[in-house]
Amino acid sequence: MFQKVLIANRGEIALRVHRACKELGISTIAVHSTADASAMHVSLADESVCIGPPAAKDSYLNMAAIVAAAEITGADAIHPGYGFLSENARFAEILAAHDIAFIGPSADHIRVMGDKIAAKETMGNAGIPLVPGSEGGISDTAEAMKVARDIGFPVLIKAASGGGGRGMKLAQGPEDLEQAIFTAQAEAKAAFGDDTVYLEKYLGQPRHIEIQIAADSHGNVIQLGERDCSLQRRNQKVLEEALSPALTRAQREQIGETTRAAIEKLGYLGVGTIEYLYENNEFFFIEMNTRLQVEHPITEQITDVDLVREQIRIAAGESLAYKQSDIKFKGHSIECRINAEDPVTFTPSPGKITNFHAAGGPGVRFDSAVYAGYTIPPHYDSMIGKLIVFGDTRELVLARLRRALDETVITGINTTIPLFQRLIDNPDFRNGDYNIHWLENWLAETSG
After folding, report:
1. Percent residues over pLDDT 70 in the chain
2. pTM
3. Are 364 and 400 in contact, with CB atoms under 8 Å apart?
4. Which pLDDT score is estimated for 139?
5. Fewest Cβ atoms nearer than 10 Å: which of 14, 142, 192, 210?
6. 52 and 188 in one domain?
7. Is residue 126 in some structural domain?
8. How far is Cα 269 from Cα 104, in angstroms, rounded to an integer?
9. Does residue 337 sit in the same domain as residue 389?
10. Is 166 marked active-site?
11. Residues 406, 387: contact at Cβ < 8 Å?
């Protein structure tokens, strides 16, 4: 097992990793920007190193500074959390060259899955169902038009190196295609330095279903069920639940085993998530995330598996603590992403938290690194915490969610808590009757 782990991240995920390390008897090293000097994980870690000014490119994305911090402190492994360098193949290669373990998959798997065209080809060959579309990148409008007419409009133009909705454009008909390609390429170039785009059939009302997997270096692979991440705004997840209210037990078992078998065939190492669109009882692969997900806690709650602990153990060369037959799904869980944003306009709301009280009681978990007196800096993602509720039934979870939202106190800044308080009363949400477009449509209808 590792002796020292450097946590190359910030906020709630840095604190989550710190806690897992301490339970494994591992010393922790926090790295931080000057803006995060007073962060909770920095205070709790055994050692801390300032790696640069507030801008992420000069601190949390500064590979040289992070590697130097690891060498100075004698870290034998680095946990990247999510975001920042968590899916950077070059970073994984640099760590290997410096004999520092990367708590994540191989650089090769990160690179393949980071290229959505290569990922689709790889997963298709492994037996995963794909969305109809172009076989590779689109080189010109004429080629795109032929593919679009073959599969039928509307179609999506998507960045090969994309994520978070950037470099993604919809073409409703032939008249929209050329402009959609041009705009998607421009966005992709600006965001990812790569203007390669591809084309997929646009699914009208799908759900976003993802399967959590874990695989060790001894040939063991498990899948830990699905999460329903269909409640999204601007292609960003807002609320997730496990298990999905839309799937039957037979569907759950089928897509879970299909996914597990594909990951076994790939020889993947570590934790990861395979994301699908689900419509008309069919699953279509969209991407694989080769890292821990923001929404991993709801899977932990329904399986009693500590995913961060297993992630660290796998990277240290140990076997998974579980076989597939050990994985039993218990009850239901929902996670709300609490952001420092105006709940109506979604304008970021950095600033000092004057009062803070996390909800508690049966079936409530609050993953956050904020505290009363903490100042949320304006330089990073606006998510400040994750409210996770769980219980034997979805009905009980909804009741606990209402209570927990009412109990949570965060003053001095705006948060999205009122959004969830409104959402929980909506009949469609309560019935589990929604898709990836539902939340934005509901927000548009109720904004007045």
Report:
1. 99
2. 0.93
3. yes
4. 79
5. 142
6. no
7. no
8. 7
9. yes
10. no
11. no
